[in-house]
Amino acid sequence: MTLATDAVHFDPYGDAERRDPYPVFRALRDRAPAYHNEEWDFWAVSRFDDVISVLHDPETFCSGDGIILEGSVTSPYPMILAMDPPRHTDLRKLVARAFAMKPVQGYEPEVRVLARDLVDAFASDGRVDLVPALSVQLPLLVIGAVLGIQRDDQLWFRDQTVRLMHAHPGDPESMVAGKAASTSLLDRFQVLIEERRRRPGDDVISDLIAAEEDGERLTADEIVGFSYLLILAGHETTMNLISNATLALAAHPDQRARLVAEPARIANAVEEVLRWDAPTQSQCRTTTRAVEMHGEHIPAGKKVMMLFGSAGRDDRVFADAERFDIGRELERHVSFGHGIHYCLGAPLARLEGRIAIEELLRAIPDWEVAADPATLPRIRSYMIRGPESLPLEFTPHAGG
After folding, report:
1. Per residue in 111-134, pLDDT tens?
2. Kind of pairing, strands 127-129 and 212-213?
3. For residues 285 and 63, is the Cβ–Cβ distance under 8 A?
4. Domain boundaries, the chain
5. Of 278, 298, 271, which is closest to residue 381 (Cα–Cα)?
6. What is the C-alpha to C-alpha distance for residues 95 and 217, in angstroms, rounded to an integer?
7. CATH architecture, range 15-393
8. pLDDT of 80-121, one tens digit each?
9. How much is the pTM?
10. Are the C-beta atoms of 231 and 224 separated by less than 8 Å?
11. Please, what is the angle between helix 220-232 and helix 151-165, to 10°?
């Protein structure tokens, strides 16, 4: 029996969904857990267990036809996130080996210095737009260092990722700009990789070139593809984690005060932000065979969108799921994916998020949002969630 969906409408490109997707997510979970959008011809799964089921069944829900709603992007550079076993398994081993060459704890001193310098630069002003001042800068500096990108070049990479993330089917010019940005990023990484082959450095690109598993190495195109993925995921996700955490704590001053008194809970607060207002809201898979879900017949070859943002607020799994609670004991969430495509950069994103909150609480613990949070301009993407601008006011504090 097909559930009635006439009272539920989900438009991933809609303004209302971009401002606040959570009311429609609740409606989807309750009344249309396998929702079909006829205009774009995709299905959306919104309950936690269904999202987990899709993530853990790559034979039925494949990544190789693209993880975005718009379909597969033709590229000569393989993207590990858009690959299926067995090649995905082999590449993942090689990439994981490269990442393991420097444990994430080894980045903490550098991330701490960067975050403290960025926060202290505005702490005495009493007002700041946090997005350009911290949320953008910290992940950009960190991922730039991880990849071996010079500081003078990092803003160029930021500009390209902004154009790529703002591509929208309803805006042809933005789609052209996004495609051009993608091409420019891929071309630039080709140049960087050739430079690292001649002069290896202490960076992930050099480690990817050197990585070997059972006599196999990554090809040049595979290194380009992974570097491209890393600059996007390693920057955009962490940027929005920092902004969303700042918004959540401003909206819940009692929770923020608890963190000031109990800083050991900050790591757990990061997990709660990831669950409650996930920076990565969705990904897509493509069915390899016909599937029945909640009375809906999903034919082979159709896009299925996994709503991570909805899964995090599923009260079938999380008690009082709409409530933001830094003391919540979380066993798992899906904000970094799950299964074979679990995010390799998750430990670094967690580290950056924790340190950013620690430094904000140290320097400006009484910040308030200097605008109506409901009207803040939002990134124009159904895949990621975060504000484009986040004006804060606070008691000025002398840095140091």
Report:
1. 999 999 999 999 999 999 999 999
2. unpaired
3. yes
4. 15-393
5. 278
6. 10
7. Orthogonal Bundle (1.10)
8. 888 899 888 888 888 887 777 678 888 999 999 999 999 999
9. 0.91
10. no
11. 80
